Amino acid sequence: MATADQIEAWAGRYGKEIHAYLWRMLGDGQDADDALQETFLRVLRHRRPASILEPRAWLYAVAGNVARSQLRRRRREGERRATPDVDLAAPDGVADRDRVDAVRRVVESLPAKQRQALLLRRYQGLSYDEVARVLGGNAQAARANVYQAVVKLKKAFPEEVR
Amino acid sequence: MTKHKDLPDKELERWLAGAAPPVETPIFAATLDAAFAAGPEPKTWRRAQQRLQDRLNDSAPRVYYDRVGSSLVGPLWVAVTDHGLAAVTYGGSEAEFAGRVGRRLRSTPVRSTERTVAVRRELDEYLRGRRTSFSVPVDLRHVTPFQRSVLEAARSVPRGQVASYGDIGRRIGKPGAARAVGQALGSNPVPIVVPCHRVLASDGSLGGYSGRGGLRTKRRLLALEGAALP
Fold first, then answer.
1. Are β-strands B163-164 and B76-81 bridged in parallel, bridged antiparallel, or unpaired?
2. If you placed Cys at A149, which of A108, A111, A118, B182 could pair as Cys (CB 3.0 to 4.6 Å)?
């Protein structure tokens, strides 16, 4: 049985970055909220929490699973994905917003491992070793997943440079 | 539209490691950053944090416990949550009490003199005959709805008076449930404070008492309260 103190300590230490990860996976604030709670409740339900040796990687892995099942449910329900609040102060803001929407859709269409590997590496600041501990496999596989995501994104936005 | 420009691997690695996109950046990198780099707004995180905190508090209540000495009924263990008094147990070992309460409340109880001060003071005063009622809140979230209604009904029996198992059944709208009432009182998690000792058999005999000392303890509590004993 996990203790309230242990979970609270983990929530204090890792809650913010796990929430940011879920926000990046799910966009909409409410969904990320729900997924955050579900992630930490799974710690509570864990039969042998003492066996979780690397809580940060474990939480990232669980958060990824929770987010993926939310995305699956969303797709089943044919729910329109909410656009996240992104500050677009650029002068051509409207075009940028369209592009942000488009990039989110492309990212969402990537295979789960590639999407997660890219978000973990570039936006959560994990090393390839750490990405591997979250997603399984080794650092080379993690790097390959990130590169495959990049290749697909380049193809999706082929023509322009800034 | 300008010509497509790939990020060389070295630049791509630097970008992936957190560097800002180079000036001549393929649009995907800048657009990706526009969508993902900033992360949730601080107020979005604060709301999520608060909701997580509330949820964890509900799911894994913090439990504090300590010991209360008493010459009348022997030592007691008491445990409190954020919602109030959740356990009173007659005697036994500390480890046994903490383990049982922890399993019941899905938490790991922490021994605390400070957090249990109000409960211990009230129990001590009560058992010395210097207090007639309890003001500490009672946490009955972890019992069944039926048991909760029985315990609430038992709480409404005033000091110095007694009721029968049948009376309690009638009070909660289940007149035929005297036996179930007896069972619900028998597993009262907070004896003394929820005065299951004031509930007797319908024939006026003492009925049962599952606390240590059994009927002797029940009789002592009733005598302390000045109830007319059978």
1. unpaired
2. A118
- pLDDT for B137-196, tens place per residue? 999 988 888 899 999 988 988 888 888 888 888 888 878 777 888 888 888 999 999 988
B162: phi then psi, degrees, rounded to nearest 5: -135, 160
d(CA B32, CA A162): 13
- Whole-model pTM: value is 0.60
CB count within 10 Å of CB B74 equals 13
Tokens of A83: 């656009």
**In contact, B197 and B186? CB cutoff 8 Å:** no
Q: Please list the alpha-helical segments (H only) found in A77-160.
A: 93-109, 112-118, 128-135, 139-156
Burial of A89 (0-12, 13-18, 19+ CB in 10 A): exposed
CB contact at 8 A, A131 and A117: yes
Which candidate in A5, A6, A7, A37 is best for mutational testing of the B interface (most B CBs within 10 A)? Answer: A37
> What own/partner pairs with CB < 8 Å and gap ≥ 24 does B205-208 have?
B205/B230, B206/B230, B207/B165, B207/B182, B208/B182
Choose the catalytic residue: B63, B196, B200, B227. Answer: B196
Work out whether the CA dihedral A28, A31, A36, A39 comes out positive or negative: negative
If phi over 0 gives left and psi between -120 and 50 gives alpha, with beta otherwise, what is residue B13?
alpha
**ipTM beyond cut 0.85:** no
